[in-house]
Amino acid sequence: MQFRCDECNYYEYDEDDDAYYCSVDMDEDDYARLMGNSRNECPYYQNNNEYEVVKHQM
To answer: Which of 9, 13, 40, 57 is the most buried (most CB within 10 A)?
Structure first.
């Protein structure tokens, strides 16, 4: 399953572990739905590009 986590607002760096993690608060049911999603899209994805967000408002 391929997600665009690198561009997501929820993809945060943890200095203690020296790694990136998804910071969305999910329970086991949410995670199972995400992995079973046939559309290969994350329902929690938020674009980190401010210019892209503004384009949709115009």
So the answer is: 9
